[in-house]
Amino acid sequence: MIDAKDIEKIIPHRGDMRLIDEIREFDTTSGVGIHHVRSDEFWCSGHFPGNPIMPGVLQVEAMAQTACYIAFIRMGATDGKTLGYFTTMEKIKFYHLVKPGDILELHVELLLSKMRLHKFHGIGMVGGKKVSEATFTAILETEEDIK
User: Fold this and answer.
1) Does the annotation mark 47 as catalytic?
2) What is the pTM of this model?
3) Residue 137: what are its φ and ψ, rounded to 5°?
4) DSSP secondary structure of 93-126
5) Dmax over Cα atoms in the chain, in whole Å?
6) Domain residue limits, the chain
7) Most exposed: 32, 54, 64, 93, by fewest CB within 10 Å?
8) C-alpha 145: how far from chain center
């Protein structure tokens, strides 16, 4: 298991925007990220007061962060300075609500890798039940690409 401290060595997300707490398993084409949904997260007080539901866009972002971890390791970009930018999000579906106290498992698979373009499919699971799903593409840039 890879913890938050080690995740932050690879991906640039910090604070409230780091949405993966652990990587339970991974290889060069797939992995499982974990997000422990807490009642003190920034979205809880407003989405929705008295009945917090994790926004779907944050579930997809958590999938993308898991995907970035896998892709950055695959690329050998382990300095925490490589960035990933969404280029497409498609086939997004939400099946069940995600609430504080849930453990959101983010199962991500690399579908295509062509130069800096990477396409992934992700499935969010809580208690063995599919809660969300998305296919997304991102451009991954190292410091050299940005300059």
Assistant:
1) yes
2) 0.94
3) -125, 145
4) EE-S---TT-EEEEEEEEEEEETTEEEEEEEEEE
5) 46
6) 2-146
7) 93
8) 22
